[in-house]
Specification:
The complex is a heterodimer of chains A (520) and B (299).
Chain A lengths: L1 H16 L7 H11 L8 H8 L1 H9 L7 H7 L9 H25 L12 H20 L3 H13 L9 H13 L7 H10 L1 H6 L31 H10 L9 H10 L3 E3 L8 E3 L9 E3 L2 E3 L3 H13 L2 H15 L6 H14 L3 H9 L2 H4 L11 H11 L3 E2 L4 H8 L23 H15 L6 E2 L12 H11 L7 H11 L5 H14 L1 H4 L2
Antiparallel strand pairs in A: 1-2, 3-4, 5-6
Helix pairs in contact in A: 1-4, 2-3, 3-4, 5-7, 7-8, 7-9, 7-19, 7-20, 10-14, 12-13, 15-16, 15-17, 16-17, 19-21, 21-24, 22-23, 22-24, 23-24
Chain B lengths: L2 H17 L3 H12 L11 E6 L5 H4 E2 L4 H6 L11 E2 L5 E2 L7 H5 L18 H10 L11 H8 L10 E4 L14 E3 L12 H18 L2 H20 L16 H15 L5 E6 L8 H10 L5
Parallel strand pairs in B: 1-7, 5-6, 5-7
Antiparallel strand pairs in B: 2-4, 3-4
Classes of the chains: A mainly alpha (520), B alpha/beta (299).
Chain lengths: 520, 299
């Protein structure tokens, strides 16, 4: 408790140190809600300001103590949370066999006109859609907002692609069992969990990486027409160094990539019939000597990989690379050195306790600097979810809101490149995507957005007085960020609208689709 | 696109530069200012079609004069008598026969044995490499068509320079150069049923962004509104394919029709992209060929 109070004082002192640029309690509450959460709901800014912004930050870091009953109730509608991975693996194995049988039949009969749409894989395509929607519902409704933001961050940092083969059924357990439990834990644990996850092993092909010349003992050669893998695959090794840990300028060479790939030979997946869990195949492991950053690895089976992951997690380059990404997420697309250094320092001090690293960022002067406020453009997910939250809209459990997010340019878990989606605005802001945002905003204001239901009476009461209406929209939806220009354009548009409900729909649509609401 | 709009975008970029903000926006604004030349109406257009289901190239353009082909494919080779001969050595799969007349009038070329040297067994990876143009390298973040747009300095950068037909921008067009995904040309812009209300709302958003947006938000919204105006002037809804051409029903046929509309509207289209998703090879090629032949811009 004492420790927490200390943190509060430290940070409250920061705006003071900046003198004239000190943030008001409401300003800092809004900023924190924009970055640590998916934007404020009606009343959130006042309540966080009353609580004290740093106390709220600590509550979000200590998320296990935040009750989240409403979300728990909604999660029950998502069947995928009740599936057992082994069950799913069996069904997937059957679906693959069924598809092969159909393809053989088609090839033999010469009939290639049959649609591939329905088919045995349908269940797994639907599973992917359900997973996307679950992410939207959690982001919108969870009281543990920072945790949801971090789950999104790590799912993107350790990207997998739900459209690739077995990842259709492996991704749900990847999110639930690999990412979520470690999202605010220790980086090293998270790194090891992703390395051992069947979803990552499949996505970056490590599952088929074997020491040259090795053969599976039971199947022997040429069993069942399935070709045995024939050598090392460097994909996981390369992305592990370049993306997951050291960063592209992290000081490693192609020789290191090969050594890392050799260390991970044999890290694989059981066949679907056996549950598709992590499996270490000793027969496929390269037992020879490997060297990475001065450390030697030799004939120590699966332990070699674990040792290597711990070594990588403790590298300064890793701390810097990942801290910089965190700062790009929370502070600005091109984060100042100050907050990155603070995060790295906390990482060193705590051996990679993610909470401590985040606390260092949230208490850094750069986080609260005036130039950081509204410096970031919302991603499509952030835009859609923040609009739902701002209007108090209720997301349903169909796939439709996830489809809206996809249309705006961010189909969840469907980024093929292992880089994940970039944090910088250049990918999100283009003319087509902006028009799509305006359309989504206008639809939400009219309660016509697919997958959401909204009752504006609770947020902005309809009013005959247009000036009062626009002021209410500014205060309740934009939290006082509306520019004088925007205010006058909206008022001008309302001039010939007599019906108060219609005026409100128009004002809310323009406010949510306008430039202020695109920023956070 | 009016000159004044470009000047607005450009001077906006300069203003921001002095404040030291938003270098990416600047890169795009600088890029836009280089690309101001007017597109000549007879400029070539690349129409890029991606067969997502993959294709057996050796059975599509058949090397029927090559004994190795028959020796290595004892069961699935196309019998020489069924092949539509092109040059005595190569020929078309019989279901591609409708393309023969395009070959005869020298409108068609086949480039054989061009593909990814990466021997991945993953269909997903293979597609991905085709789109990034970097076989074997998974971390490439943009597509090769977008890279082309970014580096090519000779062609104008209009809102419609690179357009993909579909609900989302495909990987081949992903990147920092502007590119549009259009699902339905007629529905491009704000979705309001009545035209007057739509125009009013469009104008309102345009004013909002003109006055209060900064950086990339400002330049991109300007491009979007310019595109809406351009389409309104061109009015693709009134479009009639020439010579009674009838495009096939379905997503792919609709994409081809809309590509033709944009080419003829002369809005600066340089690269069009459409997916041919999972259709079998015999997908009514004759209909497609007749439509394209009839509706071509320069007869």
């Amino acid at each position: 408790m004492r420790h927490r109070l200390l943190t509060v004082w430290l940070v409250l002192a920061v705006p003071g140190a900046l003198g004239a640029q000190a943030l008001t309690p409401r300003d800092s509450a809004l900023h924190a809600l924009n970055r640590l959460a998916y934007g404020p709901r009606p009343g959130d800014v006042d309540s966080v300001a009353r609580t004290g912004v740093m106390r709220w930050v600590e509550q979000q870091l200590d998320f296990e103590r935040v009750p989240d009953d409403r979300l728990a109730g909604r999660e029950r509608a998502f069947k995928l949370l009740t599936y057992d991975r082994e069950d799913l693996a069996h069904r997937y194995g059957e679906a693959v066999r069924e598809r092969r049988r159909m393809q053989r039949e088609m090839a033999e009969s010469g009939d290639t006109t049959r649609s591939r749409g329905a088919g045995p894989m349908r269940e797994f395509r639907e599973l992917g859609g359900e997973l996307q929607q679950l992410a939207v519902v959690r982001a919108a409704l969870s009281e543990r907002q920072l945790r949801e933001v971090m789950v999104d961050f790590w799912s993107n940092h350790f990207n997998v692609f739900v459209g690739k083969g077995a990842d259709r059924f492996l991704t749900p357990s990847y999110i639930e069992e690999t990412i979520r439990p470690h999202a605010l834990g220790r980086f090293e644990d998270l790194l090891i969990a992703t390395a051992k996850s069947p979803a990552m092993l499949f996505y970056l092909d490590n599952a088929q990486s074997v020491a040259p010349g090795s053969f599976p003992p039971s199947r022997g050669r040429g069993g069942q027409g399935v070709r045995a893998p024939t050598g090392i695959n460097e994909n996981y090794a390369r992305e592990l160094l370049e993306l997951h840990t050291l960063g592209v300028d992290g000081g490693y060479t192609q020789q290191d990539v090969i050594a890392v790939a050799r260390i991970f030979t044999g890290w694989s997946i059981d066949r679907p019939q056996q549950g598709a869990g992590f499996a270490f195949h000793a027969w496929a492991h390269d037992r020879g000597e490997k060297q990475v950053f001065g450390a030697r690895f030799r004939d120590d089976g699966v332990n070699e990989g674990i040792r290597l992951l711990k070594l990588l997690a403790a590298q300064h380059a890793t701390m810097h690379h990942v801290s910089r990404k965190l700062c790009a997420r929370f502070v600005s697309d091109e984060p100042p050195d100050g907050c990155v250094d603070a995060a790295v320092e906390a990482w060193h001090r705590t051996s990679g306790d993610i909470r401590a690293v985040l606390r260092a960022i949230f208490t850094s002067p750069d986080f609260w600097a005036p130039q950081a406020l509204r410096a970031k453009v919302k991603t499509p997910l952030e835009f859609v979810v923040s609009a739902l939250r701002a209007t108090g809209a209720e997301p349903d459990s169909t796939l439709r809101l996830a489809q809206v997010v996809a249309r705006l340019g961010e189909p969840l878990y469907l980024q093929p490149a292992p880089t994940g989606y970039p944090e910088a605005q250049a990918l999100w802001v283009n003319s087509g995507a902006l028009l799509a945002r305006m359309n989504a905003a206008v639809a939400l204001a009219a309660d016509r957005l697919p997958g959401a239901s909204v009752d504006l009476d609770d947020v902005v009461p309809a009013a005959a007085d247009h000036a009062a209406l626009v002021d209410a929209v500014n205060v309740r939806l934009l939290n006082g960020t509306m520019s004088a220009h925007t205010r006058s354009v909206i008022l001008e548009q309302l001039a010939d609208v007599a019906d108060p409900a219609q005026a409100r729909t128009l004002a809310v649509g323009l406010a949510l689709g306008g430039p202020e609401f695109q920023r956070q | 696109m009016s000159i004044s709009r470009r000047v607005f975008v450009k001077s906006g970029g300069l203003a921001l530069f002095s404040l030291g903000l938003d270098p990416l926006f600047l890169a795009r604004a600088a890029f836009a200012s280089v690309h101001r030349s007017i597109v000549p109406s007879d400029h070539p257009v690349l129409v890029c079609l991606f067969q997502r289901g993959a294709v057996d190239g050796l059975n599509m353009i058949v090397p029927h004069g090559e004994p190795l082909y028959y020796r290595e494919r004892p069961r699935i080779a196309i019998p020489a008598r069924d092949v539509v001969d092109l040059d005595g050595h190569f020929g078309l799969h019989p279901s591609l026969a409708p393309l023969k007349s395009l070959w005869d009038n020298k409108s068609l070329a086949a480039i054989h044995a061009v593909g990814s040297p990466d021997a991945t067994r993953s269909h997903f990876d293979a597609q991905d490499y085709m789109e990034t143009g970097t076989p074997g390298v998974k971390s490439t973040s943009d597509g090769w068509v977008n890279r082309y747009c970014r580096h090519d300095q000779e062609h104008a950068d209009t809102a419609f320079r690179a357009v993909a037909f579909g609900p989302q921008l495909p990987r081949i067009l992903a990147g920092t150069a502007p590119a549009l995904a259009i699902d339905d040309l007629q529905a491009f812009g704000l979705r309001v049923p009545q035209e007057a209300a739509r125009d009013k709302l469009t104008r309102a958003f345009e004013q909002l962004y003109e006055g209060a947006a900064t950086g990339l938000l400002a330049s991109s919204s300007q491009e979007g509104f310019a595109a809406i105006k351009m389409l309104k002037r061109v009015n693709p809804a009134q479009y009639q394919p020439a010579n009674g051409a009838a495009y096939p029903q379905g997503r792919f046929g609709r994409s081809l029709l809309q590509i033709a509309q944009l080419i003829k509207a002369d809005v600066g289209l340089e690269i069009a992209f459409a997916d041919v998703g999972g259709q079998p090879v015999q997908f009514r090629l004759e209909v497609v060929r007749r439509a394209i032949e009839a509706d071509r811009p320069c007869p």
